[in-house]
Amino acid sequence: MRSHFFVVSVLAVGLVALLGESVSPAFYWLYVPLIPLIVMGCQNAFQTKRAILRNYPILGMLRYFFEEIRPEIQQYFVENDTDGAPFSRDLRSVVYQRAKKQLDTVPFGTQRDLYAAGAEWAQHSLRSVHVDPASLRVTIGNHQCLKPYSASIFNISAMSYGSLSAQAIQSLNGGAKIGGFYHNTGEGGVSPHHLEPGGDLVWQIGTGYFGCRNSDGTFSPEKFKARAEHPHIKMIEIKLSQGAKPSHGGILPAAKVTKEIVEIRGVVMGKDVISPPTHSRFSDAEGLIRFVQELRTLSGGKPIGFKLCIGNPAEFVSICRAMKRLDIYPDFITVDGAEGGTGAAPLEFTNSLGMPWAEGLTLVRVTLELMGLKKHIKIITSGKIVTGFSLFKALALGADTVNSARGMMLALGCIQARRCNTNHCPAGVATNNPRLTVGLVVEDKRVRVANFHGQTLKAFAELMGACGVSTSGITRGHVFRRMESGQVLNLAEIYPTTEPRAARFLEAPSAF
Ligand SMILES: Cc1cc2nc3c(=O)[nH]c(=O)nc-3n(C[C@H](O)[C@H](O)[C@H](O)COP(=O)(O)O)c2cc1C
Known about the structure:
Blueprint: H1 2-23, H2 34-46, H3 51-55, H4 59-68, H5 70-78, H6 89-99, E1 120-122, E2 137-140, E3 149-152, E4 154-156, H7 166-179, E5 182-184, H8 192-195, E6 200-205, H9 221-228, E7 233-239, E8 251-252, H10 259-265, E9 273-274, H11 285-298, E10 304-308, H12 313-326, E11 332-336, H13 347-352, H14 357-370, E12 378-382, H15 388-396, E13 401-404, H16 406-411, H17 434-437, H18 442-467, E14 479-482, E15 488-490, H19 491-494
Parallel strand pairs: 4-13, 5-6, 6-7, 7-10, 10-11, 11-12, 12-13
Antiparallel strand pairs: 1-14, 2-3, 8-9, 14-15
Helix pairs in contact: 1-2, 6-18, 7-18, 11-12, 12-14, 15-18
Bound molecules: flavin mononucleotide.
């Protein structure tokens, strides 16, 4: 049967070649593909792993080819402007336009159905005001911090060198330098590519303690102190979890591990780098808060915070209670949503774990307020924030400032090919293959990153102006959503502060 299809396929190609030759002798070259095709067909027919290829040694290859390029086919031939996930085509387009400082207006009216469930809008005012984008900064650092940092309200979220290419990291940091915003290193540690351009850094410390680890993988206070002194490092973030794979350590697939990464991280070549799911330095809420203080002291008083995606609200409440008991307050908390991105994650973790962004952010904000802690702690958040409106919504739900990961990747030229876990990213962003990274020119892309930042802030400032508010005046009442029933509610009604999920746990025994 197998050989039957193989012979038929080769005959079919031969027939095409014969027909071509009969039209003109110049079509002789049509025989050339027969040679590699026959070789590949033989390999396919006698391999044992893929049934389709054993049964259809030549035609079967088409199936794998189309499967490989399916995201591109979908993007170029199937998608409407409002289709595409995780980012619809119109959202991707606006990032590209703002990154290139091209025309970013839309003609003829909205393509969104404003009467469909989920449609959202902000409440404008007849008393519009002017908001200066340059004023959109927030100081992070409470009374226990010696070196507060003035942060832009729009920044680059954590993505490690290794997960992204050296060129991508250099471009992101270069963009941060031009635009005056910060660049979070991701849990892979600080590399020369982060430091060379000179942009502000937030050093993220994950469970692998890359850059501050002993040979047995535990945290090294001495190495941390030496690195944290670097003047480009403005803040330090302890990573507890991220939305795309909460309670799973970082994953760097073996295909992306280069010699340089082996040296920077102190890991082994040719193996997936998988960090543990939890920290070895602490095992409960008080341990975490003491670690915050330890890092604050070792870093000479730089702002210290932690990042998490909310799972069990009782655990977050326990952390807040530990802050009060110990009288130690982190300078910031970064709240990531379950819809967050990642270089690589197990499907179950990405699809079915973690609190979605709006609920998680609301829970953190409300808990901090209920417990009288908000005055000490700034809230940073991330979750598909790529436009002025999504920034507006984040602030309405209680964030002080936001991070963007995939928005910044799009600004670098990412085409949402979704191959970050394979080392085959065609845009040279999420790969360490030199044949692909050569396409990403740092001099050009760092300007695009800075443009995307600047133009998005400009759009956000205009939107705030139209609503007649400044950042501190944005409330949940400013954003409306049409519900499944057709009813229109504002975010204060959808995410109420009066009956927060957290309140149930305020008096409960410690959960962490
Ligand atoms: C390629 C890639 C690598 C990431 N690496 C990290 C990481 O090292 N540490 C971390 O806390 N989050 C990491 N994230 C998550 C982002 O920092 C961010 O929290 C999440 O993607 C949500 O933001 P977004 O919707 O703007 O992408 C990564 C995301 C992507 C897409």
